[in-house]
Amino acid sequence: MGGGRLLGCGRLFVAAAASLGICGLASLLFYNSPWGMCIFPGIFYVTDQMIQKEEEKRFRRRLSQEFKDYLHSVSAALAAGYSIERAFVSGLKEIRQLYAEGSVLAGQLSAMEKRLSIKEPLERILSDFAEESKVEDIESFVEIFCCAKRGGGDFIQIIGSATERICDKMEVLEEIRTVMAQKALEQKVMCAVPLGILLFFKVTSPEFIGVLYGNLLGVALMTVAAALYGAAFFLGMRIVEIEV
Question: What region does 32 belong to: left with phi over 0, alpha with psi -120 to 50, or beta?
Answer without folding.
Answer: left
